[in-house]
What we know:
The chain is an alpha+beta fold. It is built from 32 helices and 21 strands. Strands 3, 4, 5, 6, 17, 18, 19, 20 and 21 form a 9-stranded mixed β-sheet that branches.
Amino acid sequence: MSAATRAGRRTPTVSVLHEYVASIGAPTLPLPGAQPARFDEVVDADGALRPPWRAMAAAAYDLTAEELRRVDEEIATLLDDDGVTYEHPDAGSIRWGLDPVPLVLDAATWNPLEVGLAQRAELLSALLTDLYGPQRVLSERIVPAAAVFGHSGFARPLVRAGVDPHPLVLSGADLGRDAAGEWRVLADRVQAPSGLGFAMENRRVISRVLPDLYQEAGLHRMEPYFAALRSSLLQAAPEGAVDPRVVVLSPGPRSETAYDQAFLANVLGFPLVQGGDLVMRDGFVWMKPSGYPHRDAVERVDVILRRVDAEWCDPLELRAGSRLGFPGLVEAVRRGHVRVVNALGAGVLENPALLPFLPAVCERLLGEQLRLPSAPVWWCGEPEGLGRVLGQIGTDQLSIRTIDGRSAELAAIPADELRRRIRDEPHRYVGRELLPLSQVPAWSSLASADGGAVPRQVTLRTFTIRDGGAYRPLVGGLATLAGTAGNAPITKDVWVLKAAAADPDQGLSGFAPLSLARATPVLAPRAQEDMFWVGRYAERTEDLLRLVITTRAFAEQLDYASSTAGGSTTTALHRAAERLAGRRHADPADELRSLLLDADRPGSVAHSLERLREALEEVRDQLSGDVWRVFGAVERSAATLRGSRHAQRIPEAAGRMLTGVLSLHGVTANMIQDSGWHMIEIGRYLERTLQLCTLLSATIAGTAAGDAERAVLEGTLMTAESSVTHRRRYRGDVRIRGALELLLTDAENPRSIAFSLARVRAHLQALPASTGSTRPERLLEHLEDVVDTADLADLAVREGGERRALTAFLGDVADQVQRLSDAILAVHVASGPAPQALSSLALVEEQMSA
């Protein structure tokens, strides 16, 4: 009898799940090329579906290869629209990998695992408290001192009396099932555990692409867990903190898990900051305000959820020269004025040399037996472990690494040389047994070239938070496939089914929400600068797209383009594009295509979009998820254009790109109107003024008379999105005087210079550091006077085929706008000089020569 029949359902089309069940037959079959037997997460020992899959068999057996290919494509689209990326050290930003079908566990499997995870988090917290406090496990030789002091994660400056009694608020553990189906801990993640954001994103996507399977499953939702995490972080504030301020400290947007960090900050409602956004004064940590150091910091930080490894957090006491943290953090921690989550120095717990000793540590510190065992590990600092590791070098039974976790470079070392290194410093090495980890079916095109289901090893990352006086694991996690192609990990959503439909999600029925308190967040100067450039690059992209569309529209009117007037217009518009982005191709169509697609061409649409995305990545926590759909739509349009050489595709692709970019205006219009929003608008209108100056100087300022001039004026107005406004404003043909009035001094035309400067003034006045007499306000007042008093009749005069007065006027306005831009950044963004390491050679030489 087939598995489909046993599940009570027959389908006319053979499903991928059915094929997988048939190919596995029994879970003891090995993976191709592997020797050990493996536990299968879907198929039991009799070749039937395991209990959690039996409950979903009706929906699961509808998943044919064709259906899963569709789902896989939808996943890719949704991940692009949400801007979910993994920052690979070599390949850069690449798409996150998500397999369509989840790892499914039932309540009977999960419940004992949950108990073991809670105990392990409590144990690690107690061990960390002991290592930086009384050090009983060291003095009683339960843990060898060399295994602790030889690890780079042990932060000696943090050893002190009165250590934080609960230094772990959020911990992670990487798990795998052995051949018998028993869970083993492969590694503890407590330094700065990542993945919660990715796990939540996986859930959001899978629930949308597999709605029938999701609704039928009856699983624990994840959302309540984030509310509990937010509460835990607020409760972690130092005693006496009223309305505590929590920030998420990030290494920046080039961090491998930058998306995860920003997602977490966004969903928790806490600012995402970098080291340069914080400062320690009078023993407290403060957010830098705009205009710092001329303006005092007024917002104190009470809790720092760090995503920066401890050694990089304080260049004064931990790692000299680090720009990822800020000086004085360790001292603020010592004084108890700020709580760092997890505690500085927690990285020592990721030391694999500790794993063999955890059962004894658990009995000593908790008075309990360890419920969740680790994978077998041998520390070379002991004779037994040394002999075991040396004897198995060159085999595939052990993974050998340093206690700091580095293993990749050891694999390339000849066996004799590796033995010599281990004998020289045995305490620095461990060997971990390579378990035959459980397998799951992988359907993703990234994991299977033919789109069928193939068995892959899987690991599970779990997360545990300190909730009140106890530790609470997330019911779920993040599963990762082994042996998959590509640079990004291929992951699975993790579904834990409820024992009963009425069970509360995450077991949080009694969770009491915090009282509502209004907060007025301070935006760091760095974030304000990023917002400023968001406005600049968004406007730059929009204006060039309009220029490309208009240029191609005139070129496609064959009769008109071949005329003197048409030729003058296309020439003038191409000249404007050349001033903005140079020129690379003699063929007009190739040149326009390059303006849209060549990211290595400064000034191009693709180049500006890259810079726009980089600026947005820096402030992802401030933004709606709708922002990233812009880039998904634009990239799909660009991909279509790349796949076609037909010139008529150019305006079509540019139009779709423009639609995507314009939608960004709608998203930012719905932002909270704080200083960051004002900086976006300032950047937008300053860039609009600069772009208009370039357009006018390349077109109107150097035209011929008669029909050619009228044609160029029409092309210029179309590019400046003012054709309709001109028709409503003026009767008759387009004239130079009317066009100049409309684009330079008409305060009611949103595309004019006068209107743009008025908007800059309104947004500039709203910034906290504006007083009415700052340099930016003075420069802007002068610039508005220059535009208001411009003599349009003089600017319209042509001398020898040129309008020299207009050219000079536009150049002067552009220069003043650039000075105004620099002044705005100096007053509202400057955060003081970059920190310098006291031990730097340059500083020593400077002092000696003085």
